[in-house]
Amino acid sequence: VSYMDPTVMDGPEYGLTQDRRMAYDIRNDKLAPYINTRRQLDATRFNLDINDSVPVPDPRRIYSVLSKVIIADYTHPTYEAEWKMTTCKIKRPLQFLEFSFPDFELDPDKYKETPRRERRNTAGNISLTFLVGKAELDPADSANVVQMNKLQEDLMNIVNGEGTTLKEFKITGVSSPEGRYASNLALAKQRTAFALRKITSVIPAAKWSRVYKHPTETRVATWNEVADLLERDSLTAEAREIREITGKYKNPDAQFAAVSRLPYYSTIIKERLPKLRTVQYEYKHEIFRELNPDEILDKYLHDPQYADGKKSFTRYEYWHLFRMIKDPEEAEKLYRRAYRETMAYDTKGKEKPWILAANNLAIALLRRDTFDVEILKPLIDLKRKVNMVDSFNDGISITKTEVNPETIVANQLAMYIRAYNFEEASILADKLPDTERFQMIKAFANCLGGYYDYRGAATVKEGEERKKVFKLVKESSPLNNIVMCMAMETDNYNKEAQKALEELPETAMTKYMKLVIYIREKKLYEWSYDNALDFDEACKKLEEIVKLDEKYYKIAVNDGEISKEFMEYYDQGDWKLY
Fold it and tell me: What is the DSSP string of 243-292?
């Protein structure tokens, strides 16, 4: 996590020689800033005091402190030793703190979306079977009719739909590479024209004339595409031979001549060629119609294409769905889908979610006592203040964008608190205004960051601020009253916590807190014959707790309140003999 500053001590003669070695400028020695100038190294026994503090990224994890001592001459170490200076366990009563600040909702009316013209793109393939050498559909293939009817139905729904307009229709015909290239291309053009007439025959001429573009394209599939089909069927050797032919001959007719001489041409190759005789289509249409809330809900509940994600809702439709879907689990799914589907690029080219969907999703997670710090992060700029507005003029209109809305910042702060990321939490807490609305969440952020112990304040003002944090969190709930008393770790506060615990129902958590206070009171840090009975009593208490909830065994193992010796004694079970 961090390196503490080293402490360097030189012997008298060593210091003089080192000064000469550094050209009489000790600043050339990289360790010079850390040399202890108040005491030189000699043969006298002494204690080396080390005092430092290091912020840790996640106080729920276990950390250790290692110290290394090196004795060296000018060029080589003559002695090295390393010690672990902590038990790797910390006291953390704040792990039981319950968060009792509100979640922060946006005013949905402020973010109501208006229906707007939406451009939709649809693309797909239909495989039509034509009569050999002709631009006519094979009447024996029923799939032709099914595919054609489906596409015609989709187009008719657009041209006849309320508020929908077909803007562009493009069709591309593909023929197989069997035969002469020029003949194949000509046949592909005839088949493409036939398919276009057939597909659009149901559209009235007046409406078809309004379609902005309806280009057609034709091409002949390549023999490399045939090789792709073979590879999909694990015919790698045959596919390799075809690729060798296309690499050797550049003329399509020469390629066909060589491929047609292959011994397996009339079997495995020829039977796959119909797969390449396709018609690819793409159309673009616009929708502009305001659905009422009941229609939107019906589409959400019953339209399979919206249910499986093939079609997306507009922000206007999501806005109404947010108000109608009440089940928390279903609403969270809806918020997550809206978050994903309504992503848009801002004026700086960065992808950002729709603020209402993002905040609703964040609140849904916080209400489940979980978190995801990435949800709101794109909406926050740590370099800016809260509640700022950016304006962008594109020459036609002015677009205004909120920067760091205080509601978003507050919910992100709540995410960081639950993630125990106090470094980021402290930054956001400083950004929020000192108003009653954010008083509690700022207090929790400061408390979990250690800014509650007024006894260690550097100034009177800081002491008063810390007292305020301590008081706010302590009074936020009966459980937090106990937690904060235990965090102060004094006899008086321990007694206050013990008294308050009697007012709460007996649970694994409250029993564990009583155990910690008992260990403090009896000072059960090391076993001895004098405190054997107290050790046994504490072990019995822990046994009751673990039977209620097994997770408290692991909590005890990692808790600095409970010594390693105590847990070893508990694990041995000798206390059960008494």
Answer: HHHHHH--SHHHHHHHHHTSTTIIIIIGGGGGGG-EEEEEEEEEE-----
Q: Is domain 118-287 in CATH 3.30.1330.60, yes or no?
A: yes
Lookup: tokens for 55: 């912020």
Q: Please name the residues in contact with 416: beta carbons below 8 A apart, sequence gap of 6 or more.
A: 373, 422, 424, 425, 428, 445
Q: Distances from the Cα of 175 to the Cαs of 149, 192, 219, 227, 466, in angstroms?
A: 22, 10, 7, 16, 79
d(C-alpha 124, C-alpha 491), whole Å? 76
0.70 exceeded by pTM? no
CB atoms within 10 A of CB 327: 9
| 108 vs 407: CA distance, rounded Å | 13
Structure tokens at 228: 């792709």
d(CA 132, CA 142): 17
- Four-point Cα dihedral 9, 12, 16, 18, nearest 10: -30
Strand partners, 297: none
Least Cα distance to 75 among 34, 14, 11 occurs for 14
Three-state DSSP at 169 gives strand
Domain positions in the chain = 12-88, 101-115+290-449, 118-287
pLDDT tens digits for range 388-442: 888 777 666 676 778 899 999 999 999 999 888 888 888 999 999 999 999 999 9
The H helix count followed by the E strand count for the chain is 22, 10
Strands 66-72 and 118-126: unpaired
Tell me the C-alpha distance between 279 and 200, whole Å: 14
